[in-house]
Input
Amino acid sequence: MVLSTSLSVSPAVFDNKENVVFRFSQSVLRNTNGRRARSRANNTSSPVVITRESARGPRRRTQSVAPTRTPPRFPVEDVGTPSGSNGPQGIIQLPRTLGRPAFKAIPAGVLEAVDADLKGVALEYLHQKLQRFGPQLLAVAASTTANPPRDRLPRELQVIVNDITADAPSHLFAVCAQSQPPTRISLHPAHALVLASHCAHFPSLPYSKPAVAPAAGSTLTLPVVPLALPSPETFPILMHYFYTKRGDHLLASLLPIAPRDATQTLDQLSTEYAATFTVQALLARAARVHGLWSNVAALGVFDAKLWRGIEVVWAVLLDALAISTGSSWRTESPMSA
Output
């Protein structure tokens, strides 16, 4: 059955549209090894422009299905598409900073709609409770499996819950890219309360009261929620952070390699990454960070620690690219802001 309803969300507003430009030998983009193998070539020829959405991160396994309903869309700033020539030198254009949209509070009544028992409960108190029990809820969600439909996305889908130490997920989020029509969908069992309590822009959900599965391996039927996002590939990173609030896990998922110890400075990290990884590998990480930022801005997430992590990693990667491409441009450390 086809659903005709869809969610319309106003585009986020971004203040900083300034780009920084790096020049590099285009041959580095043909090097599939992420580790740096040889010195840069210094060629000059007609440029190819790589915009901030042109380098994409690693793909998730997805299932090609024909959705039966229009997924809610969360539009963000139009950043353009790649263009250029096949010359040996390239030009990287990346935003100097990843801007924060204007703050928007979680709409009144959203949490109560998810769970009537939450009427009048302060959001800060709820976040404290979720931070305590979130990892256990995440383990249950991670243990939940679903067989992707072969042709069409249904209203409901059966899942198998293999961990019964906490409430089972309440919904099955069918995440896809903002393309028309969306064809590649990844299924994510999740607790609606965890997502709704962090996102100011979130669709109205079909009611589903989570409960502990009666036994490991039990089958439950969950409502399916189509969700079109700018970066489906980075949705698991964001969802993991919502459940755990672990800043170290967030940084580990975004940085090429984790810092050796707490004394390593951001400048030292940038220098190490520039010496260790190719421009292609650094661009792939930048694409991942940009994708996460796009989802965070589109969903209306205003978690201070999350935003700080994104800003720090972006600054480190841009500095590493500046060193790697011989650019004199460097970022101002976000830690000093």
Summary: The longest helix spans residues 123-143.
